[in-house]
User: Fold NEDD8-activating enzyme E1 regulatory subunit from Candida theae.
Amino acid sequence: MTVDKETQYDRQLRLWATSGQSNLERSHIALINVSATGCEVLKNLILPGIGKYTIIDDKEVTQEDLSSNFFLKLKDLGKKLAHCVKTNLNELNTDVQGFAIEKSLEQVLANDKENSFWDQFHCVIVSNYTPRLHELIDILWDKHIPLLVVNTVGFYGSLNLIANETTVIETHDPSKLFDLRIDQPWSELQQFADSFNLDELDDQEHAHVPYIVIFIKALQFWKLEHEGNSPSSYHEKKSFKALVESMSRNINIETNFIEALQSCHRAFQKTEVPSSIQTLVDSIDSKTFDGKTPLFWIYIAALKEFLQLNSNILPLPGKLPDMASDTKNYTNLSRLYREKALKDQYLFTDQVHNILNRIGRDQETVTSESIATFCKNASLLFVTSGSKHLLNESLLTLLGPSSELLESNTTPTAESNMISIYVGILTYNAYIEQHKVSPTIDDLDEFLSVYRSTILHSNSATSINTPPPPHQVQSSTLEIFKEILLHNSTNYPNLSSIMGGVASQEILKLTTAQYIPLDNLFIFDGIKSSSERFKIQ
Assistant:
């Protein structure tokens, strides 16, 4: 039985359309360290049709692996972990190519002196502790390849998204509004609105006037009475709604006027460049353009030139909401918006081509589809600069007045508890780095020593000459550390499933180049079923 792709991927195509699916199918993901969490991440990428994945791990399948990993079989015991998991995961989707490299990260780094091995990947995942992590971070940072570090210990989990810059055009921001230009209609839209003489229409025609026309006429009248200003205060907006209602012949039966009263917020929208987009446009002067400049920034530079030519108004998306109207009026209105959107796209395309010519870059590097996508989403772009640090001092200050001394009068907050979980996970990995084994509750004193030497000392501007005894670590933090050491497994299935789902969701955002990704630390408390996000600068 065969299923066509459109049917197989129907639900996700509704989320990110064919453009996002194409990006996904062209992506190649690397997983370093096979764990239950890492396998959950890959499972959630293979099912929607990631292009390729590569597993990097030199270990063999143990009894513990069999008890915690759904993608291993009894016959796999003693065999190479990466190969077995790859073989079993490949059964999920025959469209996806899986590869296994039976080497450790240390071996890969040692054999790749030029660091060119990583160029094939669009995203890299590290699951739980791995040696030489910071070396890998530096390599991928310089190559602009996003790295996700996902950890689970006991009932706690964390996820770091390490990328020096993330740009998204199709953010699917839920706050997105229809751009109707009611307050600043272009000439063709104004002519269309002027073609309606409401007093001369019969009752049926009057009841089918699109509310965009109603708003344009109402705003014209309002501005004549208010020195050219649109309604701004609550009282003015209430008066404007009364004006719209007065234009109706029978507000109880004219659905277009009823709909207009319900949609008055659209008449109050200001046609202006959002402050976040203006900041982006203003920042373009500080950037250097060459053959390697990301397309996103070329579009921003073109947008700046477009705004100068278009009265500082963004390209029109050209999409209309449904509204009460007869077919003729709605069709004509839709055509006006579509034609204006295309006209803006042509003007924007000219600016893009001008920039490409100036930097000696082929115009074929951009497509009409990508330009149309940018123009439709120009008001809600997302850009963020990341950090390659796993922790900084500002994050530690969230632990409370003192990150080390017990404050008897300090009540731990939800925020400080989350940071305690995170530093506990970092300490857990640092302990393995130093002692080559996982710590248990019997190792609490040494665990606290590692916490002070690797977390506090490394991230504090002031050195602590004499570390306080164990009982002086903040009580709330100490309890979380004990919880980690009592449940020191990194393979609890419920946590692996949750963190695998969160991590794969972020990878899907990065690979499809849609939706706003994590920025840039996620912490999960499985005991309280709560989570929090933080920004590491």
